[in-house]
Amino acid sequence: MKTIAILGARGRMGRTVAKAFLDAGYSVRAITRDGNLPDGLDGAQAVAADALDQAALIRATEGMDYVFNGLNPLYTDWVKMCMPMAGNVVAACEANGALHLFPGNVYNFGSPLPAELREDLPFNPTTRKGRIRVEMESLFERAARERNVRTVILRAGDFFGGTGTGSWFDLVMTKKLGKGVYTTAGPANFVHEWAYLPDLAKAFVALAENAEKLSAFDSFHFAGHAVTETQMKAAAENALGTPLRLGSLPWWMVRLGGTVNAMM
C-alpha cells in the first residue's frame, strides 16, 4: 500500500486531499501541530509535528512515499514562515526519499493575469505574495536538480467546495447568500478561474498514480472552470432554488486594508 503524509491536514485543502487519498486506498498520515485527527479523516494516522521544526518534520514523514504540502500560514506570516517551512519540507522529502506534491497558485503570474495561462509562461509576480511563491518554487526546482528531491506542482485558480471556510469564494462571493445577495469582485462579465477542491484533490491522486512517468521537477495547470461572475451567480441561484441580487465588493475597504497589511 502506498503511503502519503499530508502536511497541514487540518486546513481545508489538506483535509480534502487527505480524504481523496484515503478513498483511493492510500495509507494516509495526517500531520498537524497538535496531533489530533481532523474531522472526516477516519482511517488516517494522526501525527504531531511543527513544520518549523525540521527534525520533527523529518521524523513525522518517515517511511512516506509522498508528502503533500498543504501548509498555508496566515498571509501576515508569509514573509517569516513560508521559506523556512519550504526548506524543512525539502529536507524531510530528501531524508525519506518522498515525492513532494505542491499546490501552486496564480500569484506567480502577476496582475493583471495574462489572457492565457500556459505552463511555459514566465513568472511575473507583482505582489509580495507572488514573489514569495516564486521563491518557494525556485527552491523546489533547485532541490530537484541538485539534491534529487522530486517535486510535482499542480497550479489552480481560486477554489470552492470541500469542508470548512477560508477561500475567496465563501469569504466574499457567497458571504451574503443568506440575505439574498451574491457578491462580485469585478464586472459581471469578468471571467475568473475557479477550481472545485474535491476535483483538484483527485487530480493530485492521479499525479501520484503516475509518478514514475514524471520528471524530477514538473509543473501542471489544473483546468478548473473559467466562468463569468454572472454564470457563477446563476449557478448559485440554481443550487439554492431562489433568485439573488447582485452585489459588489467595496474595493475601497480592500485598498484601506492594504495600507496596514503589507501582504495585500
Fold and architecture overview:
The chain is an alpha/beta fold and 264 residues long. The protein folds into two domains: 3-160 and 194-224, Rossmann fold (3-Layer(aba) Sandwich); 168-190 and 226-258, no CATH class. It is built from eight helices and twelve strands. It has helices at residues 12-23, 54-60, 78-96, 128-147, 168-173, 197-209, 229-240, 251-258, and strands spanning 3-7, 27-32, 45-48, 66-69, 99-104, 151-155, 158-160, 181-184, 191-196, 217-221, 225-228, 245-248. The strands form three sheets. The protein has a seven-stranded parallel β-sheet, with helices on both faces. Helix 4 links the parallel strand 5 (99-104) and strand 6. Helix 1 crosses helix 6 (197-209), helix 2 crosses helix 3 (78-96) and helix 3 runs parallel beside helix 4. The longest helix is centred in the middle third of the chain and has 20 residues, at 128-147. It is globular and about 55 Å long.
What key attributes describe this structure?
disordered C terminus; 2 domains; 12 strands; Rossmann fold; 264 residues; globular; alpha/beta
Secondary structure layout:
Elements: E1 3-7, H1 12-23, E2 27-32, E3 45-48, H2 54-60, E4 66-69, H3 78-96, E5 99-104, H4 128-147, E6 151-155, E7 158-160, H5 168-173, E8 181-184, E9 191-196, H6 197-209, E10 217-221, E11 225-228, H7 229-240, E12 245-248, H8 251-258
Parallel strand pairs: 1-2, 1-4, 2-3, 4-5, 5-6, 6-10, 7-9, 8-12
Antiparallel strand pairs: 9-11
Helix pairs in contact: 1-6, 2-3, 3-4
